[in-house]
User: Fold these one by one.
Assistant:
Number 1:
Amino acid sequence: MPIMKALASSVAVRRWAYNLSGFNRYGLHHDDVLQENDDVKEALRRLPAHKVDERSFRIIRAMQLSLQKIELPKEQWTKFEEDDRYLKPYLEAVIKEREEKEYWEKNYY
Amino acid sequence: MSMSTLKAPVMNNIAKRCYASKAAATTLSIKGPQVQTKKLANNSLVVAVPDYPTKIGRVSVTFLAGSRYEDPENSGISHLVRSSAGLSTESSSTFSIVRNLGHLGANYYATSDRETVTYTIEAHKDNLISGLKYYIESISNQTFKPWELSDNLKRVEYELLTLSPEQRVLDLAHKAAYRHALGNTVFLPKYNIKKLGTEHLLYYVKKNFNNQNAVISSVGVDMDTLVHVSEDLNLPNGEANCSPKSKYFGGDLRKSKPLDMTYLAVVGEGVSYKDSQSASFAVLQYLLGKGSSVKWGVGQGVLEQNILKSNCSDNFAVSAVNYNYSDSGLFGFLLAYNGKDVSTVLKPAVQSLRSPTVTETEVNRAKSQLILSLVSASESSAGVQENITYQAATTGQVIPFEKLIAAVEAVTVEDVKKAAGKVAGSKLSLAAYGNVATTPYLDNL
């Protein structure tokens, strides 16, 4: 599906999809709304403390907003360009390590 | 992979009881293994004993990065460096290092003492080469990831809790004797456990792990392999480590602990490893006694006999200690006692340290015990490896085994008396650990 691929790699389309997803209206970042599976939990454990604090603040604020059925003022929404994917390097390392373990267990036991 | 404090040479002198039988008094025709030494173009020192009759190959990489090179701020960091051996590197995870080495049946461990930090791998010769890849990676590309360090802390704490009082008291004795440099503690102090992190470790390793400070040694592995190891390590060309020359001060340190026993170390100034008197000091150590040579027996050493003569009814154990470092040394004894008044055993022990009875028979007995311990250490390839590594790291050269034995045999009664005189002439240091209530102070001895 080369058309889908081209669409997915286009910045404009990605920005459109990002704004459509809606979590940015609560001031959340992409990595704040990941499913907390074991990999993410491990990555969060490795994340420097101040980044974890920032994340917690955003989540708590979002829950408060959701409870009050309101959104942040539009100038405070997270912009597509400002979303930093802070968990990505840690998560990738965790997944790589897990896959390495699985490979070992498959091939050497 | 094992990283145990017991590997530190501090322990060897106490832990090894020597069961010496009657050694031949005539000149022994002992031939040691052939040692090859080479200074590489990148300034690393390489020492190999390729022809040792063994199926196991051992390779050590030693850095002059022991506790004497620490600053007051990062006290105990060499302990943490040792304890962090095998953690994830830039390109391999802990898991892959441990599993791959384990799969090859290799043994990888790190040891450290006051002068050095050593990484050793041992494996069957067929497997050693494939294991070296992980070994080299884990030495030269350490990253000390913060979460791995904090996972490791529990083990470090456990290690500190299992330290024996003997180790603690000898550490205190070094502190009392040297104050700084060689007086730095080899164990991570409690206040630094949480304080020292990734940045500290990376800085320390970057500063000290370079070609000038490296000694690569092996038993059962040829020189060419070691040259390749040195190339693959790809260490930076830093500056040679210069710690301030160790000056002997002497002093009094004690630590009260809720123990029934009193542990005492009394030491005077000894000699460095390369000093011409070092053989006499080694003989003097055996003359004073390193515990019993016969199981359940009483030691023949002058120290023990002298204490027994004073009709002490309580339990005690005593052993002479002799430490030789690159620029200084300590000589004295270690005493454990569980009676009421420690001075009843301490007084005769100090008296025999200051003026031991040095007779021809005693010197001969000491010499044959020392030769036996040297020979038995050379029987195992691990012993040879440890010996050449330590010699190369502290003196920059390795004395052939035959010469060591010859030096011991050449020691005369006069030499031993001179050595004893030197210890008696220096200001003593006293360290006490455990139940220190009745321990006399230095000026009352």
Note: The radius of gyration of chain A is 17 Å.
Number 2:
Amino acid sequence: MSHTAQPQQTQTTPATSQPTAQPAVIASRRRCDADGVGLSHYILMDRKPAR
Amino acid sequence: MTLQPLDIGHADYVAITDPATAFWALVRKDRLAETLAGGPLLDAYRERAADFARELHGLRFELKPSAVYVNPTERCNLDCTYCYIPRDMRRDGEHMAADRLLAALERLKAYFATTLPAGRKPRVIFHGAEPLTNREALFAAIDACRDDYTFGVQTNATLLDDAALAFLTGRGVSIGLSLDGPTADVTDATRLSFGGKSVHDKVLSAMDRLRGYDAWSVIATCTAKNLDQLVPLVELFHAREAPTCMLNAVRCTLPGARTVKPADAALAHAFIAAVERSHALFRASGRKLVVANFANILLAILAPTARRLMCDISPCGGGRAFFALAPDGGLFPCSEFIGLPQFEGGNLFRDSMEDVLASPAFAKVTGRDVDKFAPCSTCAIRHFCGSPCPAEAHEMNGGMEKIGAFCGFYEEQVRYALRLIADGKAGDFLWDGWDAGVETSFSVNLP
């Protein structure tokens, strides 16, 4: 997947990391070129889990 | 922009979404009124809303096919309760001849050359029925076209002997297996041979022999027969070092499947317990078992274009991101429709792909849009879920403008996913490196 757009960020703390104090608002969005082709009967294993 | 609140069942956070753009935010409950009145979050979103709408529109309406699900045979040696291929077809159907399969792949290669950028291989997934019942043709096609396609095969594993496994793994073919229970009696409740024999141990044998191979996965179909066994089933998958699994709600397209349809709430409870167990196993062992269909719901929220599965989006991927080829050359939007003749859009050997993709049969599926029918059109999470599946909606619920079979289950998955995001745990449930090539387009984190 390749980059397609310039990011715009208000602040840069990823929503998926847990800060010490609870933020009042968490919002994020990420993007890439879309190439998903899986369906519920099959998942292409091109994303590997951590070992 | 129209923001909708969504109770996610979290102690501290509530979600707000703009369903039209798949925008979301988590807001501390004591700050909700203040946040909705205006301020940095809404200001930042207002600046990006049009970009998000364009991005979602592109994902929903502007993709070109890059994969084909090829059924090289109508036959299967199993008689699973919930199969979407009609029983007579599986028992007495036809194989695709080897030369016919090669001719099909040549025609498809020419088509994909018009849709994909140079250097990007299309994907062929051999699917079923049981593709390994037509093994000689299958393997000849893989060898003849190995430079042209990325291959995968979904198999019930009963015919996956050592030679077949060596052939497929030696060529880097992705392999998907199916197993519904941690013990034979549970698997046997839905997956038996036509002669009534258990296949459980054969699948376990295949899993043992695949250990260490990166490109394999296992699908469990969640039914009323195995809900209370999903936690031990995940434990079995993890112990056997499956890199990825799917815990799929049974597709209720054909009547047989509806006999084992679980209730939404019971399914959600059992499914989330199993996903939580996969997480506990990861924390204890350091090794992930990704539950891919749930990971895909997380991705639908965190990075809509990074989805790997194209069921949980509207229109679904059928007939636009991929399509399915039947053994007689018939083309369908998705394998799920192969037992439904009215959804055949044409024939690969007679018709142009462009005409097939534009056919009324395909348009019926690619035109199913959750923005245009109730109750989805006012749902806060409609573009995280997509109301799958159109085959179910049509056959079980009476039309394309009906919900799928498991509306409540999807709602609970989205709530759970948002709770994980609120708690900073989402990354634990995703593939390692899922975000390679993925960039941040919006990030607001207010103290």
Note: Chain A touches chain B through 48 residues (CB under 8 Å).
